[in-house]
Amino acid sequence: TNASSQAVPRPPPTPSPLRYSKFSQAKLRILVTGGAGFIGSHLVDRLMESGNNEVIVADNFFTGSKDNLRKWIGHPNFELIRHDVTETLLVEVDQIYHLACPASPIFYKYNPVKTIKTNVIGTLNMLGLAKRVGARILLTSTSEVYGDPLEHPQKEEYWGNVNPIGVRSCYDEGKRVAETLMFDYHRQHGLEIRIARIFNTYGPRMNIDDGRVVSNFIAQALRGEELTVQAPGTQTRSFCYVSDMVDGLIRLMEGENTGPINLGNPGEFTMLELAEAVKELIEPSAQLKITENTPDDPRMRKPDITKAKTLLGWEPKVSLREGLPRMAEDFRLRLNVPKK
Ligand code: NAD
Ligand code: UDP
Ligand code: UDP
């Protein structure tokens, strides 16, 4: 028989090395897409500070900024590429943290078609890259995949309640397709994947005017403006401080579980309670103003983090009362508001 005419069985996928890079013996090469953004830049700090990594950031600077990475520019283990993930990217890396995507409602609704392209084509490209170089890839998905949830708190098994044609769908449904693509590349091509479902995260370096509730309230408090509580104000969110989030993302990447795994702080607050906390901790003279809400606003959200606790040994350490003043310090400096 002619061996070459027979179907050649596909070799099993080679596990991507965690301790040793394929490309340079000493350090892992890590790509962070969206690394110039809020969570991404804190992740880059941690990866660079470990001293064991080479970090490449690919970002189109839509909502991110070079400023967030200032301290690493020029460092021999760091590289920043202006790149849109909807275009092909050729780099050689061991791990990919795929964060690129606007996360604040006002930015993801600004150009919804682009948001979908970023989630779908962008994730497809990063998966094609991971496949070509044998890299492990982590997607930052979102609690928004649960939509306006009918189960509370949300477990990973819950399939969600998402409006497919609403104004938030470019983001929610985009992330849902991104998760599907991750699992199809995993099943079809043997890729090593990790999926984090991130719940509302806050901290220093958030865009001051990006419209999210914590950044709005803190900026308003410092500027002496009214805190805009969107009606009815009884809707809830659970807020995770960014250092806890970064810790969870790294544990997920380094661990053995594909996920999806919820990462978030289970402390749940109504928006009125959040406004009261900002008032108490940051500006006691602040006034609250009830304003109109946006369509499809989820009424409640709180992660069940049993999986993260048992599989990753992770849980948040920073409470809202500790985190808000730290973020306010950063905003004070950036807004040039003197301490009282
Ligand atoms: P961010 O807007 O600060 O960061 C996103 C980064 O991606 C920015 O630097 C932006 O310039 C970049 N980007 C956007 N589109 C791009 C594209 N097409 N090509 C290349 N770069 C692009 O937001 P963040 O809060 O840091 O969020 C990071 C990730 O975490 C996102 O994937 C987001 O969906 C996810 N997430 C965040 C939260 C949260 O509360 N912050 C909650 C759930 C999920
Ligand atoms: N891709 C990329 N970088 C790579 C390899 C692939 O950006 O190093 C992109 C490529 O442009 C393609 C996508 O990833 O559109 C999916 O690649 P894959 O090989 O899975 O699919 P195919 O190219 O066969 O459609
Ligand atoms: N929100 C608010 N005031 C603001 C901005 C937002 O009360 O100035 C509310 C909004 O209605 C929602 C919650 O805060 O119920 C969280 O909104 P955000 O845009 O921060 O995040 P997401 O809706 O994506 O969770």
Automatic annotation (TrEMBL):
Domain of life: Eukaryota
Positions of the NAD(P)-binding domain: 31-327
Region (Disordered): 1-19
Keywords on record: Cytoplasm, Decarboxylase, Lyase, NAD
Record-linked InterPro entries: NAD(P)-bd_dom, NAD(P)-bd_dom_sf, UXS-like
Keyword Flavoprotein: no
Segments crossing the lipid bilayer: none
GO cellular component, as recorded: cytoplasm
Pathway(s) where this gene product acts: Nucleotide-sugar biosynthesis; UDP-alpha-D-xylose biosynthesis; UDP-alpha-D-xylose from UDP-alpha-D-glucuronate: step 1/1
Catalytic activity from the UniProt record: UDP-alpha-D-glucuronate + H(+) = UDP-alpha-D-xylose + CO2
Compartment(s) where it occurs, according to its Swiss-Prot or TrEMBL record: Cytoplasm
Cofactor: NAD(+)
MF annotations from Gene Ontology: NAD+ binding; UDP-glucuronate decarboxylase activity
Any one GO BP annotation for this protein: UDP-D-xylose biosynthetic process
SUPFAM superfamilies: NAD(P)-binding Rossmann-fold domains
Family designation: Belongs to the NAD(P)-dependent epimerase/dehydratase family. UDP-glucuronic acid decarboxylase subfamily.
Function: Catalyzes the NAD-dependent decarboxylation of UDP-glucuronic acid to UDP-xylose. Necessary for the biosynthesis of the core tetrasaccharide in glycosaminoglycan biosynthesis.
Protein name: UDP-glucuronate decarboxylase
Provenance organism: Picea sitchensis
